[in-house]
Amino acid sequence: FSPSVLGTREHWDAAYERELQTFQDIGDTGEIWFGEESMVRIIRWLEKHRVPLDSSVLDIGTGNGVLLVELAKSGYMNLTGIDYSPSAIQLSEKVREKEGMSNIKLKVEDFLAPSAELSGFDICIDKGTFDAVSLDPSDAAGKRKLYVASLCGVLKPEGFFLITSCNWTKEELLNEFREGFEILEELPTPKFCFGGRIGNSVTALVFQRK
Length: 210
Hints:
Blueprint: H1 9-26, H2 36-48, E1 56-60, H3 66-73, E2 78-83, H4 86-99, E3 105-108, E4 121-127, H5 129-134, H6 140-154, E5 155-165, H7 170-176, E6 181-187, E7 191-194, E8 197-200, E9 203-209
Parallel strand pairs: 1-2, 1-4, 2-3, 4-5
Antiparallel strand pairs: 5-9, 6-9, 7-8
InterPro entries: Efm4/METTL10, Methyltranfer_dom, SAM-dependent_MTases_sf
GO molecular function, one term: protein-lysine N-methyltransferase activity
Keywords: Cytoplasm, Methyltransferase, Nucleus, S-adenosyl-L-methionine, Transferase
């Protein structure tokens, strides 16, 4: 991919500062990455596979924290969200407060250099964070490797990793996560038709840590 400002911390700090101000002004939680259906897809998969409600869940790059709120509303109790942008965590704290979900844990963390206590999760979820890492203007390939190493460090063996991406195809993601992970399932995503060819603009996969 071409390097992009979408891969820089400065971009996301500025974006979440704006969203935080908007939330304080009018109570709008901001953009939901990949839309509402992306959250429904994740929650349906967890419910279908009867993932216990006390499973520890990590939302990587939580942004406004809305996915965690929806998981909490579905009965999940052990929820943690991290983001490297302090403004994103401030926003997600305000959203958590508004929704009365005091049990959601939120922390400023850089997933590429996670703190020691960030470990032992049953489930990790990524909606767009790996995409952003892949657009980093400084050594994106090296940072993708760091991401996979961090994921191996925070996710328990046999834990589940659910990733939603608009930059990567299924085959490319299988290659990126071949070290330490195996594919369990591809989740259905909206299809589009262009020039007589049918494709997916979003890829959603479930991996299991070996």
